[in-house]
Amino acid sequence: MDQLTAVSQPQPAQAPDEVRLEGLRKTFGDVVAVAGVDLEVREGEFFSLLGPSGCGKTTCLRMIAGFEEPSAGRIVLHGQDVAGLPAYERDVNTVFQDYALFPHMTVGANTAVVPRLLRWPEARIRERVDELLDLVGLDPAAYRDRYPAELSGGERQRVGVARALAADPPVMLMDEPFGAVDPIRRDRLQNEFLRLQARVRKTIVFVTHDVDEAIKMADRIAILQRGGVLAQYDTPDAILAHPANEFVERFVGADRGLKRLSLARVRDLELIEPVIVQAGADRTDASGDLRSSSVDFALLVDRGGRPLGWIRESDLDGQGPINPEQAMPGANLLEPETTLRDALSAMLASSVQLGVVVDERERVLGLVSVDQISEVLQSGLLPVRTDAPG
Amino acid sequence: MPPGEPLVRPDWIVQNLDIIGQRLAEHLGMTATAVSVGFLISFVLALVIRRRRTLTAAVIGTAGILYAIPSLALFAFLIPFTGISFLTAEIALVSYTLLILVRNILLGLDSVPGDVLEAANGMGYTSRQRLWRVELPIALPIIVAGLRIATVTTIGLVTVTSLIGQGGLGYLIVVVGINGFFPTATYVGALLSVALAVAADTLLLAIQRRLTPWSRARGATT
Asked: What is the predicted ipTM?
């Protein structure tokens, strides 16, 4: 195919399957770990294998990696059946749960393992190591010569990612990659990893038991249930909106409606036109505007257009200039990137259940209401699945 | 002890420094030979066991029996075959190192985490590369710990071989000191033997620290 045409038609839905599992099955003695799983992971996709412990998700990943032989079924990587192919010949690389760094090698040497085995020239290896450490957010000069034991959990995780990226494998397999870090750092690492992924565009298959993590990170999710049965396999929104069975419904949680709201952002809503008034403006004009509008409050802004508070319709009775003292303080400022979940929670906590969407200089772009969000929940699927998550 | 003989006669020590030095060197040589040969045999045995785990009990059991045989009895068994010789002494000394060394080499290799081994496989190390570049370096602190015990034990045991005409410092302790009713020689031999053990232990530890800077790298921020 003409390369230019390929580049000019980015159609993720038609991207070739990078990883395909066909009736993949694994038994250990009488115990069925994976019971015939069929699924496809597309090129450049962030794919999550999600499920409770003992659902066979890690076993699936290990079979793709080549650490475990399937009892039945096929694994096709990039169009090639990899049966019997050793792990290192599979064009995949694995980031292990606790990173499995080589404790006796420095960060630099750990990162350089695969390039060294491939006998790259030493100068190119050094260059690549620095580039990779930079990419994962570790200053090469400060970290290159340190040993894994001298690093925090988060730093080790990054070295694990850098090492897996070293030979530029098209597919990265990750086993609970954020499991060994505390929740606050995990959130930061996840965001960092999403930014990294936006740059490197690998096909990623990652295993997790954390529903929120899968929803946040993955383009598509395969939910496995006990006994290695594939329960559902779809986008996060579709899974939350229409759980395939009772297990999925229970597993994603009673708050799946709220969870869906973290998938969409304020910018995906159609903003409500606000009634904007400035201190000292005439009451009658404002009162007229407010009556003809769908909102119940006028938004008081300063001279620079930054929101100060809300003015009730009753405060606009009579004549004369608007008194800024009458404003109810506490307008909820939302950014276009705010998730609907955060927006809802901010609005519910204040007396005026409207959110003011502002740009980075705090100028008003429009309003959102609690009603709008509840409509989103009742309608079928979310407005859009936003481009690059995070 | 003849009456009037003092416990220590410094003049004898000064006059016989060359003999003392010679015996010290002999002691060191016998120890080094026994530990080196013992290590080579143990290393091969450990690698064989790693391939075939079913052999573990047999190898460790045999090494344990050898370890339990009293040294005098072992000499008595060996003399008909190898005579009163350096070889007899070394066979005994080597056999006493095997249990400690095989066990520690195995322990060391088994201490390498399973996912580290998988990572090594996944990255394309051959099994030989993996052994030399990943497993042995990680096992090194435990292997050296075994070497230190074996070395200190052997330094003590060498003195016993004086009974079959060898013995290093044991010659001073037993033949000159005890048999010759001359306590000075016993003291000199015993002190030097202890000093040698401490020195060898310290040296091995220093070498291990030098080779494994990572094992002391601590102080992670999380």
From this structure: 0.83
